């Protein structure tokens, strides 16, 4: 997290650490998970290995944020230890992560806004500038959502298909070959593979969540524009010539799904 923004703005929680919270809130009947076939009766008479294993788990548990469903997390660890398949697909986990990013990012911004007067004066100007940038980018997304042909998904991603493809459609785990032009809401272009005449291989499991989700709405041969809110992009982190809290606008062409 940027030292200039100390009031819990670092809420882009890559990975699935908070996925159990989202799942439990959406499926309360399923939140009481079982712990597999392992015997969890740890007592004074347990073996030395069990005691050490418990101690390791105790240390890990002390570091788990209060928001995390520890039982669901333990169930995931036991499933993995017993070589069982994941109960959720990669696509389900990525969607849950994106939804949690959206919720937690908004909470972090609101907390920053409410506590602005508590930030040291020498850092407050930068915090105010960050909030101004965030508000401008969210205002753009709100206005853009009403434009013809623009579709807004549950996570807040927006996309507009300008040419319908007829080929294969990628999944969250696919690698695709694509062209793209990336720009900011003020029109500044920060990258352009079209100009280089050099499409790239994109592993959808290894890019920002907005790309992972956006390409799944396309088929081979499609051309589209993806409008990626900051919490599905780089969040509060600056990237080269991409400022913090930037909406990322990508004109893309899906050439092939590998």
TrEMBL record:
<dbReference type="InterPro" id="IPR001179">
    <property type="entry name" value="PPIase_FKBP_dom"/>
</dbReference>
<dbReference type="InterPro" id="IPR046357">
    <property type="entry name" value="PPIase_dom_sf"/>
</dbReference>
<dbReference type="GO" id="GO:0006457">
    <property type="term" value="P:protein folding"/>
</dbReference>
<dbReference type="InterPro" id="IPR000774">
    <property type="entry name" value="PPIase_FKBP_N"/>
</dbReference>
<feature type="domain" description="PPIase FKBP-type">
    <location>
        <begin position="173"/>
        <end position="258"/>
    </location>
</feature>
<keyword id="KW-0413">Isomerase</keyword>
<dbReference type="InterPro" id="IPR036944">
    <property type="entry name" value="PPIase_FKBP_N_sf"/>
</dbReference>
<keyword id="KW-0697">Rotamase</keyword>
<dbReference type="GO" id="GO:0003755">
    <property type="term" value="F:peptidyl-prolyl cis-trans isomerase activity"/>
</dbReference>
<dbReference type="Pfam" id="PF01346">
    <property type="entry name" value="FKBP_N"/>
</dbReference>
<protein>
    <recommendedName>
        <fullName>Peptidyl-prolyl cis-trans isomerase</fullName>
        <ecNumber>5.2.1.8</ecNumber>
    </recommendedName>
</protein>
<comment type="similarity">
    <text>Belongs to the FKBP-type PPIase family.</text>
</comment>
<dbReference type="Pfam" id="PF00254">
    <property type="entry name" value="FKBP_C"/>
</dbReference>
